[in-house]
Amino acid sequence: xxxxxxxxxxxxxxxxxxxxxxxxxxxxxxxxxxxxxxxxxxxxxxxxxxxxxxxxxxxxxxxxxxxxxxxxxxxxxxxxxxxxxxxxxxxxxxxxxxxxxxxxxxxxxxxxxxxxxxxxxxxxxxxxxxxxxxxxxxxxxxxxx
Length: 145
Fold this sequence. Notes:
The chain is mainly α. It has helices spanning 3-30, 37-49, 54-61, 65-77, 99-120, 125-139; strands at residues 52-53, 81-85, 93-97.
């Protein structure tokens, strides 16, 4: 494929992808309980991976620790997470999801799933398999810069 043709595909894909993601994100963040995308992702990381440090979460999300700290503070106010000092090194603080956070995460997952079902139900099995296959293939690309 020529570079010019590839660039045209990229431009179309970017427009369609951004529009689709905006629509889906808008619907999923409108549902109650209200969690921002990053808050949802933090709760999901803590739920699946267990307790973590702020720097561990920052690394996982590819953001600065200061950005995570602000999000954690909001999650603490809502009692979705808790802080716990390491018994061996008091300088180390772990963040962990609370029972309330787990309940909110589960509610949010179910509501988001319903929204995604509405979108993806417009695709037939072959289209869904193609979409999944394409995303899996792209996710395996390791670009060294």
